[in-house]
Design goal:
The complex is a heterodimer of chains A (about 625) and B (about 325). Chain A is α/β, with parallel strands linked by helices. In chain A, about 40% of the residues lie in helices and about 10% in strands. In chain B, the strands form 4 sheets. Chain B has a 5-stranded mixed β-sheet, sandwiched between helices. In chain B, strands 10-11-12 form a 3-stranded antiparallel β-sheet. Chain B has a two-stranded antiparallel ribbon with strand order 6-9. The chains are: A alpha/beta (about 625), B alpha+beta (about 325).
Chain lengths: ~625, ~325
């Protein structure tokens, strides 16, 4: 490829950060100093095949420099043989990357659904008053509003990113204005703690039984508590045996789309084209969702063991965990666990002496909800903009790097352990006929004990809310958001809904990613709808017209309704929102656009959100 | 002396025909065809904007969506391959609504004044872009917008992509107020034709835009001025400087123009040129999209090297 580079050079630090990640340049073309013994050529396919290193290289650069300068971008382009315009297109796709110089400490303050319920707008007001508007630089620190950070059980939350020689990334939970201002002024925040699920220690937990009780950094403890028994059984029954158990378990995907996992695995296992890839989708970004984080922080080996079994059954040698960029603790725990697993021979070459080879690479997102879409994740890993692809072809035929690929959510994967240990038919006895197994729900908002709850499918919404201690605020329940921003609002009359895929579908709702956000009557529902609409607009990748423009028009119509300054009557605006929603649902490329109006439309259908003369109900 | 007998090429394998139903009419098309091909065979006029005869379908605009029996969502006709026994509807209520919304969304956010089929589509699907409110003012800083951030709107104006026209070289101008983000210029500049990769889609969501790195002016970018992006642009966002100047002066008049087919004199490849001439001056050069050498593409010499023919000013 004939690259035309920019006339800009990286600083020494920028170059060092990039070289530290990629290794020193091997040719003068890639930026090495000229050598006396003549010419060396490094090009062609090998040079162009480095594109998948782009996102991690940008991360390495950004951690050191705090922004992506033209000189640094130019050097990344040169090192990876990617046109500078393409690098720019990818870098500007991600919200965590800055293309302008900015303060070295950036505080991302969550202002999404659960944090709003915990008063984050007051927090933001206080920051604006006392520190200055977002984006303003105060002594090397700045703050930005952020979409959901996945800390909804410990709202309000923030995420601190410090760049420089000693880069830091830190989750901040249960924050108040004082603490945030101190941190902006340079205070070191307390070490993050992983959350202990409220049910910790209860018997009969299948997915959460180790979390909070077993040291997540010790492989020995993991083994002492049942770890790697499932992988041993998998090797006993062989790949076909594992596939049979997973098919018999009737396990359905837990990421939101509820596709039968066994069918996906079976389809990939049968593909003659090699290699096959396994991706664990840990880009958990659905507002209100934090279950995958709790698993990765509290029981990282279980994910590695599940992925190893999945790879064994489907014939994958290489796996990826695509982890959202806002989960540094989960990242550290996983990195540590991967290292331990390799060291002890349960990952890598010849696993447990069975001649099976499999390894896992951790890939970090950089602030893009859309990258949790199963085909966008391929684009992101391959070093392109995280835009979804049209289906067909489906990932089981043509996925990552064009090869057959299994993509499973974290929670889906960890269900494989009880399936292999107890057998598929026994697992299928849990829950209901068509929704089998245990399910994790993310309880947040106005409940006494927010957190992850594991219950069998078929538990009612009321039972689940009771488990979390009911409404905590002394007020009455106004609504429940089920399934997240792509889910729908339910009323207190809907609490007897049995939480199964089929009951949810029949009731015109969805379990989505297992979000149960309780909203009391002090919250302004219109404000929450505006938050969801703004989220969808921000997170749309922009590829297709229905979603790119539809999410904007939806937000504008809601703004008119909320302010009472409607175009025509309130009904005209509601009709417009319905038409926008229908077009996004029908004509968008991917699930983001197809569900971008579902929460908004469900609230309008079930609640008097907007009064007949415009404005919102008190 | 016997005449030399050249060996015959073996015959290509026969192409399988796929039968399907479109709007209650049975149709057979070769395997590998798209639904759009099937529609065209039946004479069903299917709207397209991002589709280009010379490029892989980007299926980004979604105005060609049709209803496939058994499918949860509508599907893009331009890219979806036919499968046996598909039952397609191209004029159902769902299809009409999505097409109406797509053209409304575009017409309310983009300047479609010189997009030939836009007005026709608006009329055909009863689109009323004015119902989203008056257009928001142009934003000179649109290139600086950041992914994941926007100011909350009040809804009293409709957000648009309007921005100042980029005039940074003497050959062509970029008026991204007219850009529908069809990806065709990026594909033509990149791996599908030119392999120059001067432009990309940058940013995200509604703020996504066609850009060079850091929105640098074209002369500082990798652009080689082949103009193959202009050739595929469906909305006039990319335009010859000569055309732009005439339109600015309100003297651009296609009814006064002639088109002359000729062959490019610069090298031995033999690209076909179509010279667009108004008032005895070449105002633009294209190449036929169906020409089997150029497929509509040219290089800087063929595309822009015509000033010496024009009378000196």
């Amino acid at each position: 490829m004939d690259l035309r580079l920019l006339d800009a050079e990286p600083t020494t630090d920028e170059r060092a950060a990039i070289d530290a990640f990629l290794g020193p340049p091997v040719s003068t073309w890639a930026g090495a100093d000229a050598v006396e013994d003549g010419h060396s050529a490094h090009g062609g396919h090998a040079a162009r095949a480095q594109r998948h290193e782009l996102l991690p290289t940008l991360h390495a650069l950004h951690e050191r420099a705090g922004w992506i300068s033209p000189g640094a971008l130019n050097y990344v382009a040169r090192r990876l043989t990617i046109p500078p315009a393409d690098v720019y297109g990818v870098a500007t796709f991600y919200a965590l990357f800055s293309m302008q110089p900015r303060a070295s400490r950036v505080l991302h303050v969550c202002n999404d659904l659960a944090c709003r319920c915990a008063g984050s707008d007051k927090l933001i007001e206080a920051l604006t008053d006392r520190v200055g508007p977002h984006g303003s630089d105060t002594d090397g620190a700045t703050w930005e509003p952020s979409p959901c950070l996945g800390q909804c059980d410990r709202a309000p939350a923030a995420f601190l990113v410090g760049s420089g020689e000693n880069p830091t990334e830190r989750e901040l939970t249960n924050v108040d204005a004082e603490a945030l201002i101190e941190i902006l002024r340079g205070a070191t925040p307390a070490s993050p703690k992983s959350a202990t699920p409220p049910q910790a220690g209860e018997p009969n937990l299948r997915l959460l039984h180790r979390i909070g009780l077993v040291d997540p950094e010790s492989l020995d403890e993991y083994r002492a508590h049942g770890g790697y028994a499932a992988l041993r059984r998998a090797f006993d029954i062989g790949p076909e045996g594992v596939l049979r158990e997973v098919l018999d378990s009737k396990l359905m995907g837990r990421g939101g789309a509820a596709f039968p996992t066994g069918r996906k695995w079976d389809a990939v296992a049968r593909q003659p084209r090699r290699p096959h890839y396994l991706i664990c989708n840990a880009d958990e970004s659905e507002p209100g969702t934090f279950k995958d984080r709790v698993i990765m922080e509290g029981d990282p080996f279980s994910l590695i063991e599940s992925m190893t079994i999945a790879a064994y059954a489907t014939g994958c040698e290489h796996g990826y965990v695509y982890l959202r960029g806002e989960y540094p603790l989960a990242q550290r725990r996983l990195e540590h666990a991967l290292e331990q697993a390799r060291h002890h021979g349960v990952l890598g070459e010849d696993i447990l002496g069975h001649g099976f080879r499999f390894d896992i690479e951790l890939r970090k997102g950089a602030g893009a909800y859309i990258c949790g879409e199963e085909t966008a994740i391929f684009s992101s890993i391959e070093g392109y903009r995280g835009e979804p692809r049209n289906k067909p072809p489906f990932p089981v035929e043509r996925g990552l790097f064009g090869q057959p690929t299994v993509v499973n959510n974290v929670e889906t994967l960890v269900n494989v352990l009880p399936i292999v240990l107890e057998g598929g038919p026994a697992f299928a006895q849990i829950g209901t006929e068509r929704s089998t197994g245990p399910k994790l729900f993310c309880l947040s908002g106005a409940v006494a004990k927010p957190g992850i709850y594991e219950v069998p499918f078929g538990t009612t919404l009321r039972e689940l809310l009771d488990l979390a201690g009911g409404v905590s605020t002394g007020r009455s329940l106004r609504a429940v958001l089920l399934g997240g921003a792509a889910g729908s609002f339910l009323t207190p009359d809907d609490l007897d809904l049995k939480l199964t895929f089929e009951d949810a579908r029949e009731a015109g709702t969805t379990l989505g990613s297992g979000v149960v956000l309780a909203i009391d009557d002090a919250m302004d529902l219109a404000e929450l709808l505006m938050t969801i609409a703004a989220f969808m607009r921000d997170e749309s990748c922009g590829q297709c017209v229905p979603c790119r423009v539809g999410t904007v028009r939806q937000e504008e119509a809601l703004a008119r309704l909320a302010s009472g300054r409607t175009r025509g009557t309130v009904q005209d605006e509601l009709d417009l929102i319905a038409e926008i929603g229908q077009a996004m649902r029908d004509a968008s490329i991917c699930g983001l656009g197809q569900t971008a109006s579902s929460a908004v439309e469900s609230a309008i259908a079930r609640f008097e959100v907007f009064t007949s003369n415009g404005g919102t109900t008190p | 002396m016997n005449p030399i007998v050249l060996p015959m090429a073996p015959p290509a394998p026969a192409t399988r025909l796929i039968s399907l139903t479109v709007d209650e009419q049975p149709v057979e098309v070769p395997e590998g065809s798209t639904i759009l091909d099937a529609c065209r065979k039946l004479g069903i006029d299917t709207p397209t904007l991002c589709y280009g005869e010379t490029l892989m379908p980007a299926n980004a605009c979604r105005i060609c969506v049709v209803e496939l029996e058994g499918a949860r969502t509508l599907i893009p006709a331009c890219s979806r391959k036919v499968e046996p026994d598909m039952v397609i509807r191209t004029d159902s209520e769902r299809v009409r609504l999505s097409r109406k919304m797509v053209i409304e969304f575009l017409a309310s956010s983009v300047d479609l004044s010189i997009t030939p089929p836009a007005q026709d589509y608006l009329e055909r699907y009863d689109g009323r872009p004015e119902r989203y409110g008056p257009s928001a003012p142009p934003d000179p800083d649109r290139d600086k917008r950041r992914a994941g951030h926007h100011e909350r709107p009040d809804g009293q104006t409709a957000a648009t992509v309007h921005q100042p026209t980029k005039i940074d070289n003497g050959l062509y101008v970029r008026d991204y107020s007219k850009c529908i983000l069809c990806y065709k210029c990026v594909d033509a500049c990149g791996e599908q034709w030119q392999n120059t990769f001067a432009i990309t889609v940058a940013g995200r969501g509604f703020d996504a835009r066609i850009s060079t790195e850091y929105a640098n002016p074209l002369p500082e970018s990798a652009c080689v001025y082949c103009g193959n992006c202009i050739a595929v642009c469906p909305t006039g966002a990319l335009m010859f400087k000569s055309e732009h100047d005439l339109r600015d002066a309100a003297t651009w008049d296609e009814s006064r123009q002639t088109r002359t087919e000729t062959i490019c004199p610069y090298c031995g490849v033999g690209c076909n040129l179509t010279l667009h001439v108004q008032d005895n001056e070449i105002v633009k050069v294209t190449s036929p999209a169906d020409h089997d050498i150029t497929r509509g593409n040219l290089c800087i010499k063929g595309r822009f090297g015509f000033q010496h023919v024009n009378p000196k000013a």
